[in-house]
Amino acid sequence: MTELTRLGVQDALWLEMDRPNNLMVVDSVVWTAEPLDFDKVRAVVTERLIERYPVFRSRAVKDDDGAWCWEPFADFDFDDHVRIVNLKKPSDPRSLQAVVAAHRTEMLDRNLPLWQAIWIRRYRKGSAMILRTHHAIADGMRMVQLAMSLFDASPQGGPILGPGVTQHAAQPHAPGQPLARRVRAGAAEVADTARAAVAGVPRMLQRAGEIGQLALRNPVGAGHTVIAGAWATGADVAASLRGALPGGGALVDVFSAAPGDVDTVRKLLLGTRNDATIWTGTAGDTKGVAWSEPVSLGKVKAVAKANGCTVNDVLVASVAGALHDYLTVHEARCASVTFMVPVNLKPLDLTLPETLGNEFALVQLELPTDEPDARRVLAAAKRRMNRIKQGHEAAVAFTLQGAIAGLSRGLYEASVDLFTNRTLGTLTNVPGPPIPVYLAGSRVEGIVGWAPVSGDQPMSFTISSYNGTVIVGIACDTTLVPDHESIVDGFAGAFERLVDATPDLPG
Q1: Do the beta carbons of residue 111 and residue 99 sit within 8 Å?
Q2: What is the three-state SS of 146-212?
Q3: Which of 133, 339, 381, 450 could covalently link to 475 via disulfide, CB atoms 3.0 to 4.6 Å apart?
């Protein structure tokens, strides 16, 4: 009898969240300076992913209890997962972007292991590879580590030394980190029913106080779309929370020494709703992707240092500036937008478990979009990111996510719709190798990826760094976001306004 391995509740949730117009698939693209030898690529992927991690050769099935499990697939064939494509215009990035976008609505075959590779024979002077992986397999940070394991430090091979990520970090180990066990234990306590979720809030907050700072070492890590929020229990939860807050009750007592953490609970449970915008509506089945021209990471660091903030503050402020410009061109106004930001809950240099899986939280970040002054936008981004770092939102959110993932299907579907539609999408910052790397002997020129979007969210952004440069990628619903390319085209302009507004920059 074939041995089945049950998915964690959050991993299983990603499978249930697939919708024809919004699939829970993480897409990434790598392009190279020289043509790829796809026989060599196949050997690399086989050795470092397929043979190393059983989930890449396992199907998702349900057991007799209706729980999602990984089942080893006896008929696994690498060729079932690969397509080779010729671009109509190999020199035009839009031609490659169109291929990626077309697959954003193509569901992975549930009768096969949940991944796919699309090999582009010719892109510019080299080649490209699109890797599609279902979010049930791993979270964003683990996917970054998986990607790093495919690269070499030289054409001849050798481990890369990225920002806390090495090729050796992709070696499997026994699953289960102490932090994860503690957080999941807290979730299990409140996961049985919606009523239990409410009753367990004080315990969640107490546990969050213990692990919050550890969880926020990497406040903007890789990761991806929104999974759930505490609106899962509907009006009863909201009423219960409102009854608990006045008068310095248990919720207040737990966070008495942590400024703003009571508001964290309010924000997670009751939500932060965007005003209606030109992007508000029902998502369709036509998707678009695009990425910007590279920006100097050294220049970004200089701006950050001069303004007493982080690189991430500068980058998210530049995204806000690009959205402001888009609204201005379209003669629309929106005071602010709220994004979901993935927070990694584990150190980057941990070896990966064979089962991979998801261990991240999602927090809410509000950015101004009606402020033309670049430094004021930066100050707002810095202030709001600092509030997230100094609070426990990530730890609380993770526990809530686990609780909601264990609810009935109807309840968590309602939760996803209510919670995700309160945000514009996902905004994530993915640190890549700081040095040139090689894929199957060919030098990598660029790396970009996109998280899924949920519900009727119109867009997601991924900021990627590689070899001293930064690019921003957008994935969107083209019904809600027409001429989306102009947003990423405006990223560099928004950043340059920050450069111009920053005094005493070197050079």
Answers
A1: no
A2: HHHHHEECCCCCCCCECCCCEHHHHCEECCCCHHHHHHHHHHHHCCCCHHHHHHCHHHHHHHHHHHH
A3: 450
How many C-beta atoms lie closer than 10 Å to residue 450's C-beta?
Answer: 28
Strand, helix or coil for residue 424: coil
Burial of 458 (0-12, 13-18, 19+ CB in 10 A): buried
| β-pair partners for 460 | 475
Sheet with 82-85: strands ordered across: 82-85, 115-123, 126-134, 25-32, 442-450, 438-439, 151-152
* pLDDT tens, residue by residue, 149-203: 899 988 987 666 544 444 433 444 333 333 344 334 433 443 333 334 434 444 4
Cα of 34 vs its chain's centroid, Å:
29
- The helix or strand, by DSSP H or E, that contains position 462, with its residue range, turns out to be strand 459-466
Q: Where are the alpha helices (DSSP H) in 216-344?
A: 234-244, 250-254, 261-270, 297-306, 311-329
pTM: 0.78
Could you read off the pLDDT of 227-266 as tens digits, one per residue?
223 333 333 333 333 333 333 333 222 222 333 444 555 5
Residue 5 Cα distances to 60, 116, 151, 232, 495, angstroms: 10, 22, 29, 27, 47
Classify residue 19 by its DSSP letter: B
CA torsion sign for 88, 90, 91, 95 is positive
Fold of 5-172: Chloramphenicol Acetyltransferase (3.30.559)
And the tokens for 471?
Answer: 């690019």
